[in-house]
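Morning!

This is the sequence you dropped in the shared folder:
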Amino acid sequence: MNCENISITKDKYTHIIWDFNGTLLDDLSAAVGANNVMLKKRGLRQIEDMETFFEMADRPMWDFYREMGFDLEKEDYREIAAEWGEFYREFSSSCTLFPGALECLCRIRDMGIPQIVLSASEKNILSDQLISLGIAEFFSEILGLETFHTIDKTGITQAWKSRNPTAVPIVIGDTENDVKTAEILSCDCILKSGGHRSAASLSKHGYPVIDSFDKII
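The structure's back. Tokens below.
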């Protein structure tokens, strides 16, 4: 469902849990660019239609690569994931925050609500990006994956829940992974379109969908 405005206050939430890629960082072009280099190397058809990409990306990554034509019987998925990570690092170096993201981080900081990044990105790349963008200081915790192998935030989400059993967070993200994070935490969720999934894909999950950060007040 598309929403006009969503109120976030310290009375309602103890923490804001942000996804990063496609939520705060406008990096869809980098993600697609990395995939296209890998596809070209293998003589496979490159991604040109973003609607097709959105549809295919809404599934486990090993299924995504299999459908893109990768031979996972001959190639180790872990090596494919590592290769993608190297190309992504190169392509994402010029990516910027979405319009309004910094202002939203500032508003929430001024409310005194702790903000956390919980991302399926590899943690060293994640930390480097946050520092490069000048926003690392906004976050009390920066939680990423050890590798790109799984692209699944379940483990770090469950670990955070165990450390913070009385927390009442809200998750802000752009994919079904963020829906899963909210379900694990039994908390509210806001989904932002314009990232790695289409608005139509996000709407099916039943959470509020926004198209800009000024909808968060």
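Headline: The domain at 15-26+96-215 is CATH 3.40.50.1000 (Rossmann fold).

More detail when I'm at my desk.
O.
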